[in-house]
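Sequence only, no structure available. Ideas?
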Amino acid sequence: MGTTFPESAYNPVLAKAAREYIGLDNLEYPVTNHSPAEQAFREYEHERWEEQPERWAPLINLEQLQARPNLEIEYYVPDFIPVGAKTILSGAPKCGKTIALLHMLKAVTEGGTFLGKNCPPTRVLVLSELTEMEFKRQVEEVPGLMGNKNFYVLLPEETPQHIRTWEDTIEFADKMLALTKSKILVIDTFGSLAKLPPGGENDSATIQNTINRLNSLFKNRYLSIVLTHHNRKNNENTGGQSSSINSARGSSAFVGAAGNLIFMEALDKSTKRKFSFYGRYLNGVERSLYLDEGQYKEIPYSNFGAALKG
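Reply:
I predicted one. Tokens follow.
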């Protein structure tokens, strides 16, 4: 899987020192744990076929699937970031995707609310394309986020030299999720960090295969992965609909690669943003949000309630 990960750089002594440095052994509030359900699932994972244990294969039948414990929570950010799923937040460059996401992640890392709904507390790991100064400026736009000890970020200038491929990035993320005990992984932006080949951003097969490589991380059932992505320009075969499912580069790949697709659109020069939902959660829903005194609020949208009833 890519370049061999330098295990010597993550020996137990250094890992312990890293945990102490970033405050993992001195928690200030209870991070989402779900111990009973996760322990039950770990015990189930070690099940083997009794008939021919020597010929065990990683298959289960539906009776076994039914016996697996259900998740204790469905969303980290209700309606926006489901548990155990990949979410793609797509929009035009500079439309405010990262800022909107930072507002959601603030609520999660504090165990607060977003749009009046409770967010189960957990830690967040962000892989960012922004330099330290760029990222700091964006964080400072979200009141109260700077200084949050439950929000971890890997900046490009801090990226270890051995990370050269997408597979290396996934392997690194896997280790850092375990180290920080984070349950949300953000890749901002997918196009920048996935190291796609020339033309790959517009190739559906390339995008779908690249996103699907993240599936190995879901051995942690409570993980959520959020990928930000750029839409095409309005004149690139979108019919002028920048929030439609056809507006994202490689759009047809998203249907198969992610269960939750959110398309974000800036309608004017105000703080108002329209979010269009597709996939297995709020399919066909449109919601309009705006920033008011540092908080996102919702403009009532007629088809949201109708879609929920349907």
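Residues 235-243, 302-310 have pLDDT under 50 and may be disordered.
Hope that gets you unstuck.
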